[in-house]
Design goal:
The protein is an alpha/beta fold. The chain is built from 13 helices and 22 strands. The protein has an eight-stranded parallel β-barrel.
């Protein structure tokens, strides 16, 4: 697919939106910065079933182990929740969900019982959408509806491996993939030039030799009546770019087509450290080209002038590592290879520290070694078997940490509703992937947790100072801090108090807000006027969220 070349203006050193180009977006007053992202991560198959007619595809009817088969979630279900305002009520401004490409047709059985590719990470065909999730038109509707709500779409993409080999899914040619050795993770080579696990063929992303398209893939396209169209688009891509026809170049072409076609705003890149870092340079370059072209072709649908966003999963990367990941014998700065942000695996360990210790640590790194970049903080995920609060006993603290720690927020589906992370009979990461607990959401206890998440999420979504601003402690009792964010002519200031007593509380705001300033506490909804450097708030809550808005 060919796209015209255009140039887009960046606003300042942060990824800051300049101005909305569509009247429907003018109500979104707060500039969007990726460093302050409120990102909701979900597995499409496990979120909401909006269309039961697409639940079974490719005769995937074998009995599976617990939570290892398709359960019906789809694009229509996500779109329905977007329209209902579920994500808006949580303050979500970016939606990340598992890969959407067509999955292997067969099931694997590697000692845990039959498993299908319900999660999206077992690619069969990068050029097709998984029909269990929906159609291209339904995906377009999802993206369009999200954009109308001011929500960016972040696609999860896999470049370093295909899906497992099954009777229905033959291995790719040997000049495309390796099937041995297994990774030992004790060096750069033994992490990048190997297979993650048994029966997960690894793409030869370091291969500079040209390869032909797999015959099985061409036959599949022929059977589906789109061989000539796919080949023509491939020819156009290589004619424009001049790239050698390597495995990574083909896959990057296929992945970035989703950006040019649908206006996807960013990628979450899977298994980053298991591929050549130069592959990520190419991915970002081509994704940016496709994104800018989409904007040029859809001027009335452009949300802002932010560049294409790329966030990486470098497994076990922690914010303390700064810009580099250490393989033992080599260090790699992935931020220098197209990534604006990396998933931070460290917060779940830091979570036992005090709020001041956590916040000051993250502030010093984000405004020091990582200045101009960011991290995405999480406490639970789809493949981390050691979440911070496995039995959902510290939900309020988890929410405080997710939304108030400097950096971006990754909210994993069901964090806000205490979805169970331990399912009897489920083994391994399957226990982290139960269906969203919509049936429990009206429970008063769940509602209390959800409302806490909503208040914090909406506050962060309206205030880039929370994730991207400079942190300053103001008082110990109650613990009070400020965040201030400035970019060009825009400035945002907030003061937050935690662990405050019920009733009347005097919050120190001196040096942040001027005498006589009218402030609103977003948590209680009450207003107060700054008097002698203090904002007095009378509420039954332990949290105070102050701003001029």
């Amino acid at each position: 697919m060919k796209y015209p070349i255009i140039l887009l203006l960046m606003c300042g050193s942060f990824l800051l939106s300049c101005q909305s180009s569509k009247e429907v977006k003018s109500e979104i007053q707060t500039p969007f910065v990726w460093e302050n992202a409120n990102m909701y991560f979900l597995l499409t198959d496990r979120f909401y079933n909006g269309d039961s007619t697409n639940d079974i595809q490719f005769e995937r009817t074998a009995k599976t182990a617990v939570l290892r088969g398709f359960e019906g979630g789809d694009f229509k279900g996500i779109t329905e929740k977007i329209k209902e305002g579920y994500f808006t009520d949580l303050g979500i401004n970016a939606l990340w969900f598992s890969p959407i490409v067509e999955q292997i047709h067969g099931a694997t059985n590697e000692g845990t019982g039959n498993t299908y590719g319900f999660h999206g990470y077992w690619t069969k065909d990068w050029t097709a959408i998984e029909p269990n999730f929906g159609t291209q038109d339904e995906f377009k509707e999802l993206v369009d509806q999200a954009h109308q709500k001011g929500i960016r779409i972040v696609l999860d993409v896999v470049l370093n491996h295909t899906g497992p080999v099954t009777e229905q899914d033959p291995v790719w040619p040997s000049d495309w993939v390796r099937t041995t050795p297994a990774c030992t993770y004790d060096s750069y080579e033994n992490t990048t030039a190997c297979t993650l696990v048994k029966n997960l063929p690894d793409i030869l992303t370091e291969n500079s030799n040209e390869v032909s398209l797999p015959e099985a893939l061409k036959q599949k396209w022929a059977n589906e009546g789109r061989l000539e169209e796919e080949l023509a688009q491939i020819e156009a891509f290589f004619a424009r770019t001049g790239y050698p026809r390597t495995p990574q170049a083909y896959i990057i072409k296929w992945l970035t087509d989703y950006v040019g076609e649908f206006g996807v705003d960013g990628f979450r890149v899977d298994t980053v450290k298991h591929a050549s870092e130069h592959a990520w340079d190419m991915l970002y370059k081509e994704a940016s080209y496709a994104f800018n072209s989409w904007k040029s072709n859809h001027p009335d649908e452009v949300l802002d002038q932010n560049s294409f966003y790329m966030m990486g999963e470098v497994y076990n990367y922690g914010i303390s590592g700064g810009r580099e990941y250490d393989f033992g014998d080599k260090k790699v700065d992935y931020y220098a290879h197209g990534f604006h942000s990396l998933i931070n695996f460290e917060l779940k360990y830091d979570a036992e520290m005090s709020y001041p210790e956590i916040f000051k640590k993250y502030d010093s790194i984000l405004h020091g070694p990582l200045k101009g970049k960011s991290v995405l903080n999480y406490l639970t995920s789809h493949d981390d078997g050691q979440p911070y609060d496995k039995f959902r006993e510290k939900s309020r603290r988890a929410a405080n940490l997710l939304f108030l720690t400097p950096g971006g927020t990754q909210l994993y589906y069901g964090d806000e509703t205490n979805r169970d992370l331990y399912i009897p009979g489920a083994e391994g990461d399957a226990t982290l992937r139960s269906f969203m607990n919509w049936n429990e959401i009206e429970d008063p206890k769940i509602q209390k947790v959800l409302q806490h998440y909503q208040k914090l999420g909406q506050f962060k979504g309206k205030h880039p100072a929370i994730g991207a601003g400079k942190h300053q402690d103001l008082s110990e009792n109650p613990y009070t801090f400020s965040r201030i964010f400035s970019n060009n002519n825009y400035q945002d200031k907030v003061v937050v108090a935690l662990n405050a007593a019920s009733g009347v509380k005097n919050i120190s705001v001196g040096g942040v807000f001027k005498e006589g300033t009218l402030l609103t506490d977003a948590y209680s909804g009450s207003s107060t006027v700054v008097t002698s450097g203090v904002a007095t708030v009378d509420s039954p809550y332990e949290v105070v969220l102050l701003s001029k808005k």
